[in-house]
Design a protein that fits this description.
By secondary structure, the chain is mainly alpha-helical. The chain is built from 2 helices and no strands. The protein has one domain. The radius of gyration is 16 Å and the shape is elongated.
Length: 68
């Protein structure tokens, strides 16, 4: 259970890092393609959503109860 949360946290940090890396490439107007970092960010997002769905389906994590 704790491993899933650690992996999710690391993936979120990886996603934010790639977002800022793409911003730096955009601001520098470098020849390096910005789409590489944006693509990594999108891939990390897909993996995060898939991991959350898998963890909820298998019962590793439980969502909060409904507030009403």
């Amino acid at each position: 259970m704790i491993y899933v949360k650690i992996i999710l946290g690391l993936l979120l940090v990886f996603m934010i890092f790639n977002l800022f890396k793409a911003m730096m490439v955009m601001l520098k107007n470098d020849q390096q393609p910005m789409s590489k970092f944006i693509g990594r960010r999108v891939l990390a997002s897909v993996v995060i959503v898939g991991l959350i769905l898998l963890a909820v389906a298998t019962g590793l994590i439980t969502p909060n109860p409904r507030p009403y």
